[in-house]
Design brief:
11% of the residues lie in helices and 22% in strands. It is an alpha+beta fold and 160 residues long. The strands form two sheets. It has a five-stranded antiparallel beta sheet with strand order 6-5-4-1-7, with no helix packed on it. It has a two-stranded antiparallel ribbon with strand order 2-3.
Amino acid sequence: MNKFIIASFLMLGWGFYEMSGGADFVPEVRPIAQVAIATQALDPVPFDAPVVTRAASIDLPSFPDPAQAEVITASLVTTPIVQDVPAVQQAPIAAIDLRQVSGARVNMRAGPGTSYSVLDTLARGTKAEVIEVTADGWARIRVTTTNQIGWMAARLLSGS
């Protein structure tokens, strides 16, 4: 079989060589475009050379004794601005459901089921925010350290 393949390639190569003209092959001559070269000299743009001067020195106070140095403390007091918002726009803030991974090494998946691909493997004690829990026991979570979102079995999450 190997001899047949080698013979086929040799025949194809010889056929291409003969079809392209063989030893009498002469490449096509393409005309070369003439490029016009500008011969006009441009006048230099007048410009005043900058004058470089030495920077002025600044006299800084010297403190030979550190006890003479004055320490200034500052504090920032802020007052939040509360605007009157109509009662229709005010919504109660939902409590965040934080839990920890209770299994030793738990797969976080792309969807609610073992048929979905594994996005990450989380170690025991990893904190996660539960976004939703499905009826069949899968929890959509967001890992607090990486903000990665995925799915895992809700039974593998314990209260924080």
